[in-house]
Amino acid sequence: MVNAIINLYLKKEENMETTFDMFIETEVPEDELIISRTDFSGKITYVNETFAEISGYETHELIGKPHNVIRHPDMPKSAFADMWETLERGDTWEGYVKNLRKDKGYYWVFARMSTVIKDGKPVEYKSVREPVSYAKKIEMQNLYDEMRAKEENQTRVVLYIDNNLLADAEALEKT
Questions:
Q1: CA-CA 20 to 30 A from 48: which of 70, 80, 159, 169?
Q2: Which domains, from first to last, does the chain contain?
Q3: Which of 122, 151, 134, 171 is nearest to 18 (CA)?
């Protein structure tokens, strides 16, 4: 039974995380804003120092990369579909986002995203993000877990297996 669960899990996920880094949260300081800009395809064109520091990347590692490089796997796809639909209409999107750090840790933000207009023409998207309260993080994690279960037929789990099965599980991951 455990092997069947491991097989199902590994086939659904790209990478099996075997460290506890994925459980380490980085708090966004109350007096800081995270700012980024992207082109219309979602490639990063600018990040402020706070963005780089909180995400664990160097600025040069982020420029030119798709913004979803920091997308945490707990985030439901529908949240981003709504974001893109809202932005394409020319409206401002607001929402709570759990982001993935370079070291596989995470951080929560409240994001406001909008289109930048220059000389009457849309030129790029900008995002300003701020800290989230502990209570809101719990609320949103529960909501996003429910959304992923319902919409994507996926459930977030922490699975403990015997160490003697770890090599087999890692081998399955590579198939």
A1: 80
A2: 2-173 (3.30.450.20)
A3: 171
